[in-house]
Design goal:
14 helices, eight-stranded mixed β-sheet, 24 strands, alpha+beta, six-stranded mixed β-sheet, 403 residues
């Protein structure tokens, strides 16, 4: 969970002091931010509101992720890849495509260390709401952690083309003289010289040659170093690789805002009947996948509901048996709590071991054998087949029981 004490709570559940987040930290090399799977999403189209557009026309442009990265509208492939994966996730969860866009941070809101930032914004009754942030945070995070902890967070990379000869600076340290002059501080001065960057070493060497001494500052303490204590010499050495601090691409999801947006996008009332609300959650997201609805409670009907419920559970499908009230009223109340499919046990079930299968949003029904209903529903809920495909395979069932 995240906490923002400075927040003034408002806008219902959208702006609160405590909220749940989900984040990805994807580390990349500073000179290679390509992604091996970017090709899989490069052809996807997104609604993009760039920083340049915000400063002029304010136009949202439809562009493929491949074109956006190719034109440097989006800084690099890895950032573009995670933006595309975020779009796939939000659409699968029920966000409406026309009400989703990516807005690029303008220069006056971009963090000083960031290379590029895009927010996935979802349109709600409160306007456009930032729900997922995507930031190329360069090497800032690891550099700051390393600086505060004193622990190196660099990684080693072997050169692909083999060893190289490189220029380097080697210190010659008079440890005895340093110890005599600085006593308890000598060790940290020696450690500093042993890890000093080449450019800093040569700057100190120039000062020592010019003035005979130079000031060294370590953690706010100043030490006067003389040329008989240290000398730096340029040389060459063979190296097999390099140490570097990785850059990080960070998608950050505000789960509360996403859930709120999904609920708002997917609740509506049936046309012509304001009393019949529908929570149109995608099957993959709905907590209860199927309602089992016997038309009657006579003895000959009773074995079917437990049998069907057991088959559904064996296929990992949560279900609810509802035997009370008219079938139309039962359809209505399962629609209202977001159950995407309904199985009705009717007189024909007793004759041929088939049931009707109803889809919530279209209210269309098909006739299907009990032996095939659970595997079919499993594939529908996993989104590996569509309702249209099922309707082509099985005969339609027409009823007036919706009323």
């Amino acid at each position: 969970n995240a906490f923002r004490n400075e927040i003034a709570p408002r806008s219902g559940l959208l702006r609160v002091r405590e909220f749940t987040m989900a984040e990805i930290e994807h580390f990349v090399k500073e000179d290679d931010k390509s992604h091996p799977k970017f090709v899989d999403v490069a052809g996807m189209t997104a609604n993009l509101l760039s920083a340049k557009s915000q400063g002029s026309t304010g136009e949202v442009v439809q562009m493929t992720f491949g074109d956006a990265v190719g034109s440097r509208t989006i800084n690099n492939e890895t950032l573009g890849y995670y933006m595309a994966r975020t779009q796939l996730f939000l659409l699968a969860a029920g966000v409406k495509p026309a009400r989703l866009r990516f807005r690029q941070h303008q220069s006056n809101e971009m963090a000083h260390y960031a290379s590029d930032c895009w927010d996935a914004e979802i349109h709600t009754s409160y306007g456009w709401v930032e729900c997922v942030g995507h930031a190329d945070r360069s090497c800032f995070d690891l550099s700051q952690h390393s600086k505060a902890s004193g622990v190196s967070l660099q990684v080693w990379e072997d050169f692909k083309d083999g060893p190289r000869m490189v220029d380097t600076v080697v210190p010659t340290i008079n440890k005895g003289l340093l110890g005599k002059n600085f006593r308890n501080h000598a060790q940290k001065i020696i450690q500093h010289f042993e890890s000093i960057a080449d450019e800093d070493a040569m700057a100190m060497q120039a000062a020592l040659e010019k003035d005979g001494s130079a000031k060294l500052t370590i953690n706010g303490e100043d030490f006067q170093i003389t040329k008989d204590m240290i000398a730096f010499v340029k040389t060459q050495k063979k190296i097999n690789g390099r140490n570097f601090t990785p850059h990080v691409i960070e998608p950050s999801f505000g789960l509360g805002r996403i859930i709120y947006s999904i609920l708002e996008h997917n609740y509506y009332v049936r046309e012509g009947d304001e009393q019949r609300g529908v929570l149109s959650l995608p099957p993959i997201l709905a907590p209860v996948k199927v309602s089992v609805l016997p038309l009657r409670t006579d003895a000959e009907y009773r074995p079917f509901a437990p049998r069907i419920s057991k088959l559904l559970k064996e296929h990992g499908l949560s279900n609810k048996v509802d035997e009370n009230a008219s079938i139309g009223r039962r359809y209505a109340r399962t629609d209202e709590i977001g159950i995407p499919f309904g199985i009705t046990i009717d007189p024909d079930t007793l004759k041929d071991d088939t049931v009707t299968l109803r889809e919530r949003d279209t209210t269309k029904q098909i006739r299907i054998p009990i032996s095939e209903v659970a595997p079919t529903l499993q594939r529908l809920c996993d989104a590996t087949i569509t309702w249209e495909t099922v309707c082509e395979k099985y005969p339609a069932f027409v009823t007036k029981l919706e009323d």
